[in-house]
Amino acid sequence: MKTVPILDVHSAARLVKDGDTLLQGGFGMTGNPVHLMHALAEIGTKNLTFVGNNTGETGLGGGRLLRNGQLKKLIGSFFTSNPDAVKAAQNGTVDYELLPQGTLAEAIRAGGAGIGGFYTPTSAGTPLAIGRETKVIDGVEQVFVKSIRGNVAFIRAWRADTAGNLQYRMTENNFNKAMATAADLVIAEVEQIVPVGEIAPEFVHTPGCFVDYLVQATLTLEDLGSSASVSSSKKVDESRMNMARRALAELKKGDVVNLGIGIPTLVADLITDEQGIILHTENGMLGVGPVPADGGGAMDYPVNAGKIPVTALKGSSYFDSADSFAMIRGGHIDVAIMGGLEADEAANLANWAVPGKPLLGVGGAMDLAKGAKRLIITMTHTNPDGSPKIVPQCTLPLTATGVVDMVITDLAVFGYPNGKLTLLELMPGATLEEVKAKTSAEFLMIE
């Protein structure tokens, strides 16, 4: 059995050269090789192409390299959460390529498997498909995506043995497993290094043949940024709760359900054990429970797609982001409940880009909109300026075409029976006259 060299964090970081493509594991700061990234920031290696779901928080992880001017290009899924990334994109100091989260994960997995690329229905008909080859396969428009490989991958695992076998903990798996296969040089930052044989074979998530170097580094609360503790900023009022209750009424026992951020997260607070609904989060967990009652954070609990610590129900499971999106695209998610900016008469959805802001944050919305068996949108009926959100044709950048099954607003519930936008019912306190006045789309009414 081979022995993998163990390096200090700065010696490992020096293996990255100017101009390299660097893969960085992590979802937010969860499973993020933050110590390696900070060592690289101190060394000053420059002109790097960064590949990761996001750059970390402001001044943390990849965010520190971005602030230092060490990154020339960003390739990822969600950079909007880092104001430095938004500013850098606006002033042109970095190039960027935005990919849907599932496409990013699959491109990395393909790169590690020696596959040149693949076709996916995700992003077809949206701005992210512009300039890419498309093909109709079995009647479905699909977009070609080239695989991704890096010169170096920085990943984070919970445990390693001296042969380089890795074990991930809870939702710290995310992009790390795929990235461990997809770089010429793989450096694993780990919490613990144990003698070979102490990790049982069935608990090895990444075999040691993928790992070139190990670095031992202990996580602290400061390393996790805002994921360190449960957020108390969830916006709750009666109108939003009415929408959440109405969405819950659409779910059936045994449904596997993905909840988006915003109003959809309120549905989770209403689900009881008796209802038997299984919550999925795209960063790698099935069987999501409520937030920890003890106030604990990401040091002790998994996190959901909103990077909020959650509990695990009996029968829960963890997996990596590539497998999670395979579940989504493969039709194994019964219902997705998502927020929206616009929905239109043709069941098109726009929910990821706002005019005047860089298109820096698509996340998993495109994959879920295309892949879930049923899509429910919850949103306020109008924008703050009173303009309608249910429109004849979406004017904002599209998330997906022809995918919406139901729209629940603070005023009404709409569906698409026979492919036609139809008012199904009014919400508490709303009138038909108000709905007509605040809806620019043409709609039918259920008889």
TrEMBL record:
GO terms for biological process: ketone body catabolic process. Transmembrane segments: none annotated. The keyword DNA repair does not apply. One of its GO terms (molecular function) is CoA-transferase activity. InterPro entries: 3-oxoacid_CoA-transf_A, 3-oxoacid_CoA-transf_B, 3-oxoacid_CoA-transferase, CoA_trans_fam_I, NagB/RpiA_transferase-like. Keywords: Transferase. It comes from the Bacteria. The active site is at residue 282. It holds the Pfam family CoA_trans. PANTHER family: KETOACID-COENZYME A TRANSFERASE, SUCCINYL-COA:3-KETOACID COENZYME A TRANSFERASE SUBUNIT B-RELATED. Belongs to the 3-oxoacid CoA-transferase subunit B family. Belongs to the 3-oxoacid CoA-transferase family. This is 3-oxoacid CoA-transferase. The lineage of its organism: Bacteria, Pseudomonadati, Bacteroidota, Cytophagia, Cytophagales.
